[in-house]
Specification:
Layout (H helix, E strand, L loop, with lengths): L8 H14 L1 H9 L2 E2 L6 H21 L8 E3 L11 E3 H11 L4 H28 L8 H23 L4 H15 L5 H9 L8 H31 L17 E2 H26 L27 H9 L6 E3 L2 E3 L1 H29 L15 H20 L2 H7 L4 H40 L1 E8 L5 E6 L3 H8 L20 H4 L1 H14 L20 H13 L1
Antiparallel strand pairs: 1-4, 2-3, 5-6, 7-8
Helix pairs in contact: 3-5, 3-10, 4-5, 5-6, 5-10, 6-9, 6-12, 7-8, 11-12, 11-13, 13-15, 14-15
Enzyme class: translocase
Cofactor: heme
Protein name: Cytochrome bc1 complex cytochrome b subunit
Length: 551
């Protein structure tokens, strides 16, 4: 008979000391048993978390040698091709990290790749949350936190990209200054304050450095902690399946299963980043030289997450620019630089509340939707992806033009047209596909799946026998919520118009509710295929044939 060995007396005493004062044993035991659902898509958020941790670790390493100064120096270092070139201390110190600090170039590459993967995993994670409806009550606050993390991550990436003061990053800062200058009335004042004078000024690197290593990371860290605390309290959403419900979570307990899996996944993500950094060079600043306001280069693009803004600035026409009281209002810069990003991120932030208002659905949701079961939401999401993707491609219209020998003006007009038509086509096509998949699901639920067995009826008709779907499949198909249009009632039981429906707001809500649900396929009254009847009324035909032969 084996017994569990006791912990050393010193550890037991420490544990008792802490528990006597904070009573953590019961809380810790409960949290260690907390269940996390198993699905690969839930790891997208973990990749974002691990990338952020790697960013913090590598960023601390880089701060030991980076000098956030725009003071001019003459380079005399290990990279001989730039010896004797005048540059800022920021650029010279970055070259020192790359060529003189042991492992410095690898760490800077890891830092840059971690930033790219951090934003990418945030985007894909948010798409998963959006398409499955995981933002619905009670998780609206966590969705807003996620949107804020996304915006701050992009700003953090932009500021970090600008710190080395090389030619590409300086061009990015120049674009930032142009957008700031487009602000009516206050643009020039904000630019002078931020840059410490006329562009490029003397202070921009120092100020971006403080924002990059202190303010934004601190806010990000606080938001990420809040995000996970809310997630921990509200529990994770899960996909429909056998044994799962709004109140019952099926998955792996926190300890030891999930903890071991998460720890191993962290090292896997880290290994991928190190491999990319070792074999796929990114942002080789030594090849471009230091930034000077009079220099420019072609064929360069910003980091991928800023490509949509680059594209919107390239294709938006200047037809709408105007002057008011002697002040120029450059719509061709103001709209693509501020309004379009505001619409994208503002739309993401308000969508949970807009959908709740349209549908009137204020129930708690712990089960994730299948995207096909919310065709309008899925269509809107695809329309947003198409809009973003076309702007992103427009950011490289010069490269597309040169590569495929197409006129630059032709590519510009193509994107101008399709950035409007593309989202509309994407929405319509996605909605129709979702409705088609719903009909297929209803068919599978009602008649089972095709077995490949052909049977001849007494009447001479040949039919294919359908077999009963698995319990898991039936449970997933039946998870589709009833089609409910929670409308603003036009009249009550006495025929009197409801006050909520009299105004334009009530009528608009009613129209939107009809638009949101009118084409959805209802599964009400559909009984799962039991395996005892044939497909498409063949059973009835067989009974009729039997009745005819007996008579």
């Amino acid at each position: 008979m084996s017994t569990t060995p006791e912990a050393p007396k010193a550890l037991r005493n420490i544990g008792n000391f802490i528990d006597d004062r904070f009573h953590l044993s019961k809380t810790g035991e409960k949290n260690l048993r907390k269940v996390f659902p198993n699905h690969w898509s839930f790891m997208l958020g973990e990749i974002a978390l691990y990338s952020f941790i790697i960013l913090l670790i590598t960023g601390v390493f880089l701060t030991f040698w980076f000098k956030p100064s725009m003071a001019e120096v003459i380079y005399d270092g290990s990279y001989e091709r730039l010896n004797g070139v005048q540059m800022s201390e920021a650029y010279a110190s970055t070259l020192y990290i790359d060529f003189d600090v042991r492992g410095g170039f690898l760490v800077r590459q890891i830092h840059h790749w971690a930033a790219l993967i951090f934003v990418a995993s945030l985007v894909i994670h948010m798409l998963r949350v959006f398409f499955t409806g995981a933002f619905r009550k009670p998780r609206e606050i966590n969705w807003l936190i996620g949107v804020a993390i996304f915006v701050l991550a992009m700003l953090e990436g932009l500021f970090g990209y600008s710190l080395p003061d090389d030619l590409p990053s300086g061009m990015g800062v120049r674009i930032l200054q142009g957008v700031i200058m487009a602000l009516p009335l206050v643009g020039s004042y904000v630019s002078m304050f931020l840059f410490g004078g006329e562009f490029p000024g003397e202070e921009i690197i120092t100020r971006l450095y403080m924002l990059h290593i202190l303010l934004i990371p601190g806010i990000l860290l606080a938001l990420i902690v809040a995000h996970f605390m809310i997630l921990w309290h509200q529990k994770h959403t899960q996909y429909p399946g056998t044994g799962r419900s709004e109140k019952k979570v099926v998955g792996t307990p926190m300890f030891p299963g999930f903890a071991v899996k998460a720890g191993g996944f962290f090292f896997f993500v880290f290994a991928i980043m190190v491999a990319l950094s070792a074999f796929v060079q990114v942002n080789p600043i030594h090849l471009f030289g230091p930034f000077t306001p009079t220099s420019i280069t072609s064929g360069l693009q910003p980091d991928w997450y800023m490509g949509f803004m680059e594209g919107s600035l390239r294709i938006f026409p200047n037809w709408f620019d105007f002057n008011i009281f002697g002040y120029a209002v450059p719509i061709g810069v103001l709209v693509p630089g501020l309004v379009i990003p505001g619409l994208i991120f503002g739309g993401l932030a308000v969508w949970p509340f807009a959908e709740q208002w349209i549908t009137g659905d204020k129930r708690h949701h712990n089960m994730a939707d299948r995207p096909r079961n919310a065709p309008v939401r899925t269509g809107v999401g695809v329309a947003g992806i198409v809009f973003y993707g076309l702007l992103w491609l427009a950011g490289s219209n010069d490269i597309l033009s040169e590569t495929f020998s197409i006129s630059l003006y032709a590519t510009t007009w193509f994107f101008r047209i399709f950035v409007i038509l593309g989202p509309i086509i994407g929405f319509i096509a996605t909605k129709r596909i979702c409705l088609g998949l719903q009909r297929q699901d209803r068919e599978t639920l009602e008649h089972g799946y095709e077995s490949g067995t052909i049977q001849q009826l007494p009447s001479g008709e040949f039919i294919e026998v359908h077999k009963e779907s698995s319990e898991e499949t039936v449970h997933v198909l039946q998870s589709k919520a009833p089609v409910e249009r929670i409308d603003v009632e036009a009249v009550d039981e006495h025929g009197v118009e409801a006050p909520e429906a009299r105004g334009a707001k009530g009528r608009m809500r009613s129209a939107l509710a009809r638009w949101y649900t009118k084409d959805n396929i209802s599964f009400e009254g559909v009984e799962p295929h039991s395996g005892h009847h044939l497909h498409h009324g063949a059973h009835a035909a067989e009974e009729e044939a039997k009745a005819g032969s007996s008579s």
